[in-house]
Amino acid sequence: MNTAADFSPTLLPRLMPDAMRDALRVRFAERFVTSMAVREQHGRDESPFDAPPPEAVVFCESTEDVAFAVTTAAEHRVPVIPYGAGSSLEGHLLAVQGGVSVDVSRMNRVLQLDADDLTVTVQAGVTRLQLNREIKDSGLFFPIDPGADATLGGMSATRASGTNAVRYGTMRENVLALTVVTASGEVIRTGTRARKSSAGYDLTRLMVGSEGTLGVITEVTLKLHPLPESVAAAICSFDDAAAAVDTVIAIIQMGVPIARCELMDANAVIAVNAHDKLGLAEKPMLLMEFHGSEASVAEQAATVQELAAGHGGTAFQWATTPEERTRLWTARHHAFLSGLQLRPGCRAVTTDTCVPISGLAQAVTQALAEAEAAGIPHFIVGHVGDGNFHVAYLIDPALPEERETAERLNRQLVQRAIAAGGTCTGEHGIGLHKQDFLVDETGTGAVAMMRQIKQALDPHNIMNPGKIFSL
Amino acid sequence: MNTAADFSPTLLPRLMPDAMRDALRVRFAERFVTSMAVREQHGRDESPFDAPPPEAVVFCESTEDVAFAVTTAAEHRVPVIPYGAGSSLEGHLLAVQGGVSVDVSRMNRVLQLDADDLTVTVQAGVTRLQLNREIKDSGLFFPIDPGADATLGGMSATRASGTNAVRYGTMRENVLALTVVTASGEVIRTGTRARKSSAGYDLTRLMVGSEGTLGVITEVTLKLHPLPESVAAAICSFDDAAAAVDTVIAIIQMGVPIARCELMDANAVIAVNAHDKLGLAEKPMLLMEFHGSEASVAEQAATVQELAAGHGGTAFQWATTPEERTRLWTARHHAFLSGLQLRPGCRAVTTDTCVPISGLAQAVTQALAEAEAAGIPHFIVGHVGDGNFHVAYLIDPALPEERETAERLNRQLVQRAIAAGGTCTGEHGIGLHKQDFLVDETGTGAVAMMRQIKQALDPHNIMNPGKIFSL
What we know:
Two copies of one chain form a homodimer. Chain A has helices spanning 18-28, 36-42, 63-76, 128-134, 152-157, 165-168, 171-174, 203-207, 241-253, 266-276, 294-310, 322-340, 360-374, 400-419, 435-457; strands spanning 32-33, 56-59, 80-83, 100-103, 110-114, 119-123, 140-141, 175-182, 187-191, 215-223, 225-226, 230-237, 260-264, 285-292, 317-319, 347-350, 378-383, 388-395. By secondary structure, chain A is an alpha+beta fold. Chain A folds into three domains: 4-106, Uridine Diphospho-n-acetylenolpyruvylglucosamine Reductase, domain 2, CATH 3.30.43; 110-226, Uridine Diphospho-n-acetylenolpyruvylglucosamine Reductase, domain 3 (2-Layer Sandwich), CATH 3.30.465.10; 230-419, FAD-linked oxidases, C-terminal domain (Vanillyl-alcohol Oxidase, Chain A, domain 3, 3-Layer(aba) Sandwich). A seven-stranded antiparallel sheet of chain A has the order 15-12-14-13-17-18-16, sandwiched between helices. Chain A has a five-stranded antiparallel sheet with strand order 5-6-10-8-9. Chain A has a four-stranded mixed sheet with strand order 1-2-4-3, sandwiched between helices. In chain A, helix 10 packs across helix 12 (322-340) and helix 13 (360-374) runs antiparallel to helix 14 (400-419). The model of chain A is unreliable at 1-10 (pLDDT under 50).
């Protein structure tokens, strides 16, 4: 949909000189790949943007591999683009200024599980599902779930969240420490395994959400959580999205420790029904999960049922067995792909605003009304317990005016979110496409400070250049 | 105890030129103060360190006042030292390189309570107790409680925590957004009121814990929490500190959502008994609080009682009325001052390590054994649910060898904490005295990165110079 011209760098692509190519080939041998198929696979993500692929891909197997690749790139002033699972939605992986893709997906070992401390250290290429499989006998789990089976390095780099964040927090709250290869190729360690610390600047939190622009994350130390004694999931349908969201607002304001609280609008339900044969009532729906002791889960559920009934919610349907729960959550995770099938051949322009909870009903209602008025097929899913929701506008890539309309709707949505005290991106990141929104949201002074940090830590602008800001 | 010579700056104190003095006097009139009494009061904190006082104090009443003071100081390259309540324990307020103290204590207005969003924005000089008084009718509260009635600006700057952090997190988790005056005197806003965001670098978390070295915090937007339906506090005594701590480890590993979980060793209990006439059993003691629905509190308490009994804990004593609870927590908050009276005329060298929870029993046991062996009066209090505890060594200021012994014990404690995956400071900050420990903990590479950030954001090193690192 976008073309390279959309993100034309002010600098020309910085081509890899032969000396760099040779150095990487000597070190990485067959793990240094320049075939077009592999380059193209690494130059795309789940975003609707296109750009030329990276000039090469190096498959790293250790922090030392990454340090070597970055040191070599630094010497030659060539961009470095970290690559995990390729599930970015904001163009983070696109080689808009050329460069080499540093693939960490083979760095997939769980390095150290400290079950007694509720911590684990993993290589950056471990995915969240893999982690939970590998630690399942420990009685612990890692809750952050952005939908995609992303790598923990990538989730750290984009400050990911998703379902479960309403109770367990985002990557911001769950990353304790990182190993990072800096722009000069040095290896540093940020943070410790202690639950809290006041030791100097919070480099961990600076790196979390930095989208590869300050360094390459190679190891991640995470908080784990005890598997709840009891888990229950339920769905509840409403006549309109506002009633569903008003229920959520009441849940949050009462302090119910709900673990997951997701909205699907009627279109999203129609999509997952078609895709997963679920037979759900095709009305706005909340999909919820409760964690705790049996008594606590029962109490939470009773409170929420009462609140839902007060907003016209129909009787809960419970998913009590793990299989039923998995079926529901799998459908939820398929919502994006299912939604795309509502309009075959379409591409999606996806919004990611997050607003203070009291403004959520209005934000969702206005977004729906505007999408209806514009006549563009769309659906909404959202982590509404956090005030975060996504509108997917399903546009025909052959019709530029549809894309323009979707972008206009997105702009309006973002401006309203910012005016309401919210953010242009709850969890996807700035990447290529939200750089103007970042300025609108936080002001030129704060963005200037971010640029000062970027320039100090990456003076030659080799770390994923063109992302967050077009330096 | 320490003298200025201990922190001799590599640069000479940077004296205020007459032009700066005149500019501040014109703007601030009687709020520009150079009397020795006021300067001395602003040049001390709760740390055992001494240094010459700042050259002047400006009492700011607005962000614009602070911006004016910093702009003027920047023009003349004179240090700026932010001042809130003066409760720092690490020498953050000491004018080790001269300069002007920027007192924000008169910036004490709660600016905007958004009860429906569970957020509040305050000026930096509002204290935590004041905030909770002012919002008490909203059904919400701000949980972070470092003991002292510190300002929320100061608590942000030191990444404070204290009791309650085990359930509600520290300032790291509870600050949503900040207004900051940068080193050039510009006013920026970091963050939004949304619960989560992936919008660019996390400047909020970079400022939280930066100890005044990157800017002056003038406004703070905080998360609030619903007042729990039910609160219960209990104490439980143990034959030795290890048994108490082993109970805590089990509580955390089981995921009990305990709200407060504090250790007082036998000496600390003796001290508060003497000071507050409490008649507690003079044995190691846990002081706990449970928040939640009535059923949840009862369930948590039953689980914890069982765990305590399994480690030889005596029967719980409950504090069920608010008055009894307040009496107990007041005693806990007095523990430091009460402890000082164990040795009249003493000063305290206080440790602040925080370790992964499984290492806590050994850390406490070794600390106690070493203090006993050294023959220095001491006591221990700790936020043990987080793995954080404080040993106070009570030394005779007239006996330098006692200070040397206390510092040696502290060094040993810190080195063991770091080896166990912990931190040299859970909540007090680096300040003047832990700069070497910071390097030991995080490595020269990470500290070099912190310095690069400092130099980029404060190129003339005017923001609280000499703290965190001696630039």
